[in-house]
Amino acid sequence: MLRKLGKSNQLAIPKKIVTAFGLKKDDYIDIYINDNKIILEPKVVIAKEQSYFYTSQWQTDEQEAEKDIKSGKVTKTKDLNELFDNMDK
User: Does any domain span residue 71?
Assistant: First the structure.
């Protein structure tokens, strides 16, 4: 898909590509050079205070918790007081 570089070095991304990648207005795209080619890679920007949730440790713990839930290794309580009482036992 041939495109012409426009005013202020802007380039329009073809609708077919926008649709295929689910891109929307104001999405971020990382642009870099690799092997003498221009690469455009969609990125999600995460607020610094939320970045922990994307660490490998957090993701590993989430997977473990999901397995526990699916296997029934959970304790149901009526409220926080009962939960804390159960934890103290």
Answer: yes
Q: What is the pLDDT of residues 48-77, one digit of tens each?
A: 999 999 899 999 999 999 999 999 988 889
DSSP-assigned beta bridge partners for residue 39: 32
Looking up tokens 């804390």, which residue turns up? 84
The domain that holds 19 is classified in CATH as 2.10.260
Over its C-alpha atoms, the chain yields an Rg (Å, rounded) of 23
**What domain range includes position 78?**
48-88
**Residue 20 neighbours by CB under 8 Å, 6+ apart:** none
H or E element, residue 32: strand 28-34
Q: What is the pTM of this model?
A: 0.56
